[in-house]
Amino acid sequence: MKANVHVMLKDGVLDPQGEAVRHALGAMGFEGVNGVRQGKVIALDLADGTTEARIKEMCEALLANTVIESYRIEIL
Amino acid sequence: MKAAVLVFPGSNCDRDMAVALRKVGADVTMVWHKDAEIGDVDLVAVPGGFSFGDYLRCGAIAANSPVSQALKRHVERGGYALGVCNGFQVLTETGLLPGALMRNAALKFVCKSTPLTVATSDSGFTGGYTAGATITLPVAHHDGNYTAEDAVLDQLRDQDRIAFTYADNFNGSRNAIAGVLSENRRVLGMMPHPERAVDAATGNTDGLALFRGLVQQLADA
Q1: Res B221: pLDDT
Q2: Total-model pTM
Q3: What domains, with CATH codes, occur in chain B?
Q4: What is the pLDDT of residue A58?
Q5: Hey, is the C-beta of A62 within 8 angstroms of any chain B C-beta?
Q6: Which residues does the Swiss-Prot or TrEMBL record annotate as the active site (chain B) (predicted)?
Q7: Which helix (H) or strand (E) holds B188?
């Protein structure tokens, strides 16, 4: 089975990289980009039967830093 | 004073840290990240560098290596720990210190000497300085932008746990925080490098008081 973990900075945590991308898009003439948030996707190839609870443990222990990041698990 | 310096793949300030500690008389052992035991030491130093290539997040993989479990036990026993630069990132990732270190606000790697304010002299690390004094230490990092929730920042202030602040907040840290102490004041994490400022031959000795103060504190204990 496969699962994707989407990791994003929490709302309210300033994202300097996303902000730089927003500036660049504006400078390139793409109007109306009000905000950019940059995150990452971690693609997991897992043994069949791995539970969502187990993936959540992986997120809490390593994949996300929950001080500043939120995560979303997508089982494919 | 017995000290251990942790060494991860990608650590690059480990030997500088050992030199600084030996200069003030510490008996130093280097401990590889796969070792599950650190041994009986007074201080564990987590050095700067780019442990595990900064993969995933700075310090995240190091924080979950076997030696970091031993580091946690050392701190739980009331041992002292000092994390500098990547070592500070490791200490926040282990949860031994609050907050997190994000990409510098201007997105640039910054390598320079920078003025700091000693925010408290009430710790084994900062007792050799006068509170409010300005010292200069080298910094060299890409991810030193300290952040924490408002409630955590209030707690750090109320408990006098901010050790150093930037006089010129070049990386965008909240409240200009450059270094924080644990609740028992025995764990310090800081982005600037005191171990790079202990020898007049390299132009700066402002970091020496930190190591001397620590030896004094531990000798008195």
Answers
A1: 61
A2: 0.93
A3: 2-220 (3.40.50.880)
A4: 97
A5: yes
A6: 85, 193, 195
A7: strand B187-190
Give the C-alpha separation, B75 to B40, whole Å.
12
Q: pLDDT digits over B7-65, tens only?
A: 999 999 999 999 999 999 999 999 999 999 999 999 999 999 999 999 999 999 999 99
CA distance B24 to A61: 37
Interface test with A, best of B52, B54, B55, B57 (most A CBs within 10 A): B57
CATH number of the domain at A70, please: 3.30.1280.10
Three-state DSSP state, B44: strand
10 Å CB burial of residue A73 (0-12, 13-18, 19+) is middle
Rounded Cα gap, residues B141 and B197, in angstroms: 16
pLDDT at A14: 85
The yes-or-no answer on residue B111 being catalytic is no
> What is the Cα–Cα distance from A26 to A19, expressed in whole angstroms?
11
Q: Say if strands B110-118 and B100-102 run parallel, antiparallel, or are unpaired.
A: unpaired
